Every structure is written in C-alpha cells, then in structure tokens.
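Run log // design_07
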C-alpha cells in the first residue's frame, strides 16, 4: 500500500473509468469504491445498509458475493473495488466487522412478510404504514425494537 497512489479502474456497473487516490485509510477508500461500484439507495439493500452503518469491508464483501452469484446482473464485475482491495492486500474471504454487522443488522432491519426481503433503517423508522420497497407489502412493525 502506497499512500498517494492514484488508481484508475473501470466501474463494473457503468463501465466508466473512475479514480481513487489511496489515502492510507483502508475503510475510507473501500467505502468510496463501494459507492462508485454500487450507487444504490434501496432500503432493502444490505450493501447500502452495511456501508451506511459504518461497515465498508462487509459492504465490499457482500457486493463481491452478489457479483459472483450474479444477483446483481448489471454490475457483474467490480474492477475498481478489486483494485483498491488489492492495494491494501485485503483478504476478500473474511471481512473485518462481519459479526458486528450481523448483530447490528438485526436491530435495524425488519423482514417483509410478503417477500422475505429485509428493510434496513438506521433510524428504525418502520411505523406509520411503511411498505416494503421490494414487493409493496406493508411492513409490520415489531412489538419490541432493540
Ligand atoms: Zn443496492
Ligand atoms: Zn416485500
């Protein structure tokens, strides 16, 4: 890893070239790469949810797994993210913070009865007739929110 190095790579989703300057802060640079590779504001997206909650390595790991299983058809590859991770010699197999994210996710997500998708909201604002963005079913607020 070389702070100041500028990486140029393609963004998988758009095929545009982006650049990231390696800052020396892996969390910051990986978060930036994930935002480039997966520009998404979907409330049922665990990539966006984990990124927002401060788990960029987990977000990168989910994004790369989604890529492999082709859940995200549009972004089959993540060259920019791969380049950043390679720069930091990161092991893509076991992201830092995965257990913490899973514990956190359980407190900020709600499962849809209709489709099984999870809606994430850091503010836990699930009340007042909110619907699942995935299928449109009304979400049932939990009796107890951790
Ligand atoms: Zn997403
Ligand atoms: Zn649903």
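design_07 sequence
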């Amino acid at each position: 890893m070389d702070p100041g190095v500028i990486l140029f790579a393609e963004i998988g989703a758009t095929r545009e070239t982006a650049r990231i300057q390696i800052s020396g802060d892996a969390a910051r640079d990986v978060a930036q790469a994930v935002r480039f590779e997966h520009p998404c504001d979907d409330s049922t997206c665990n990539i966006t949810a984990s990124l927002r909650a401060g788990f960029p390595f987990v977000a990168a790991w989910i994004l790369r797994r989604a890529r492999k299983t082709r859940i995200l058809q549009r972004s089959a590859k993540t060259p920019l993210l791969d380049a950043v991770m390679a720069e930091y010699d990161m092991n893509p197999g076991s992201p830092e913070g995965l257990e913490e994210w899973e514990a956190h996710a359980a407190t900020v997500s709600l499962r849809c009865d209709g489709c099984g998708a999870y809606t994430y909201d850091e503010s836990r604002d699930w009340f007042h007739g909110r619907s699942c963005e995935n299928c449109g079913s009304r979400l049932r607020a939990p009796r107890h929110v951790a």
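The first helix runs from residue 26 to 37.
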